[in-house]
Amino acid sequence: MLGLWGGQYNYSEGKRAYDDYIYPTTSYADVIMFDSNGLANGKISDITANWQVNNAGQLVIQYPNGAVQTSEIIDQLGLEYGVFSQFSTPEGEFATYNIWVKGQTNFVLDSAYLQPTSSNHYWNGEINSWIPGSFDSNGLFIPERLWGWLFTSHTVQNIDGVAWQGPDQNGLSSINFVLSDTVSYQVGAQNIEISRLPFAKRYWYPIASTIINGDRVFYIVEREERDAQLWFGGQPGYNTFIPSRINIEREVDRANYTNVAR
Asked: Which residues of the chain have pLDDT under 50?
C-alpha cells in the first residue's frame, strides 16, 4: 500500500453547485498517499487518517471522525484493481465496489503528454462508456459515447461524435465530429485545471498511465466545479458539480469511425 493511490475515501464533497444540498460524508474518490508511519492523507479531502493491513490482507483505515473503512482487492485487470470497501461510520454502515489504481511516481501529466500523437486522435473519457449499450455490434462506441478532449500546448476543445452518416455508394458510413469553443488549461503541481466553460472548471489529478491494445491510456481522479451564479443565476461561488471519481482517458482514433462498413 505504500505510496500514492487513486481510490475511495470517506469524506464530503461539500456544497452542490445547483441548490443548497450538501453532499453527505460518504465514499468519494481521492488521491491518497499512504506513508510508512501508518498515515493516509487524502489530497482532495485534506483528511489524514490511520491505516494498516490486517492479518486477513485487508486495508483498514481509521478516520478522525470515528469512521472505519475496510477494503480488500477482489480482482485485477492490468493497473485496475477491483476493490470492495465496507464503511462503518457514526451515521451508519454501507459498502462500495470501485476501481483503484496504484500511482506511478514517473508519470507526468503535462501539455506534452496531453497532445495527440496524430491529427486524428483525441482523449475519450471511458467513464461514459460504462453505461450498458455503449458499443455497437462492431465493437465501436455509439456516437453519444465519443465525447472527449482535443489538446494543444496551451488550449483544449471538447470534441463530440454526432451521428453516423451514410452509407454512401460504396456502403461505407462515417461519424461527424463537432468541436466546442477553444478554452485554456493550466498544468499545476497537483492537477490539471481545465476552464471548460465560463462557469465550469474540470480538475484532473494524475495517477498512472499505460498502453492497452496499442492505445495510450491514463488514469485520473477527476471532479468538476461550477459557479451557480454564472451558470443559472444562483448563489455565487464555485461548488461541486461532479463529485470526485476515477476516470480512464483513452487516446481514440477518429479514423476508426470514418468509412466503416456497417
From this structure: none
